[in-house]
Amino acid sequence: MERGESTLGAVSPMTTDPVQRITEHAAARDAWLDATRRQLHGDERVAAVWLVGSLGQGSGDEWSDVDLVVVARDAHLPVLVEECRSEFSRFGEVLVAIDAPNGPAGGAYVGVAYAVDDLPLWVDWYIWPLSTARRPSDARVLIERADLPPPATKPHGALIQQSRAADPQAVHDRFADPVDFTVAMVPIAAKYIARGQPQEARELLRLLDRDAPDALGVREQLSALRRILQRAEEERPSTAVQAAAAVLDLTEQLADR
Question: Is 221 within 8 Å of 198 (Cβ atoms)?
Fold first, then answer.
């Protein structure tokens, strides 16, 4: 993919109202997605792009991340797979990027947190070879311009499980940089808290800190996440840490309402 202008959403004026703030962020996310779709449409190496996850299913909310399947023509796969981090860096300011062995066989996966509207936007990118790609039953088509097999009867998650390139248990072991992992996961844990999903937040918190107690209320979970993030900041201060802290601030403000 040739370098082009960034698809980073325009930064809106900061507001002190947390509900309005997350609503503005969701609008910036949608603008980012539309601009990214237009850029990918101009890349002839891309045969299709499918939006999966909650946004693809139509069940997303203001906190939803973006999950994209990029179907690439097989002749271009070696470069795309080898350089997937740099390939996807042109879509905005990258706060953190993590590649893991949970992409499809012959393809790749990279998770990227972009700075969008002064908050991190997490995007799961899946590169899928055209020769084996089938549109998931829960996907929304953003681009489709190649002869593809009939759509699958299974959702994206099931298709990934069936064609995964590596054992998912190896994913956590691949994170050589614990600071990057922390910066990526803290906003996701905060999202679970904001949604009223304490069990999901607790499981992610334990992944970040194996010594964290099981029985924690919302306040205690937020405090624990802030301590974990503080350790990351002490080790390596960065814009990414600040953006993750902003999500914790926003979640705390919502909890106060």
Answer: yes
- Largest Cα separation within the chain, whole Å, is 53
Q: Do 145 and 203 fall within a single domain? A: no
Nearest to 149 by CA among 129, 174, 171: 129
pTM value? 0.89
The C-alpha atoms of residue 145 and residue 44 are separated, in whole angstroms, by 10
Residue 87 structure tokens: 């390939």
**What are 25-68's pLDDT values in tens digits?**
999 999 999 999 999 999 999 999 999 999 999 999 999 999 99
Domain that holds residue 201: 178-256
37 and 104 in a common domain: yes
Per-residue model confidence as pLDDT tens digits over 130-171: 999 999 999 999 999 978 889 999 999 999 988 875 554 444
Contact 48, 145 (CB under 8 A): yes
Q: Residue 32: in which H helix or E strand, if any?
A: helix 18-41
| CATH number (domain holding residue 47) | 3.30.460.10
Residue 239 lies in a domain: yes
Two structure tokens written together for 48 = 């299709």
Residues whose CB is less than 8 angstroms from the CB of residue 28 and which lie 6 or more positions away in sequence, other chains included: 9, 10, 11, 12, 116, 117, 121
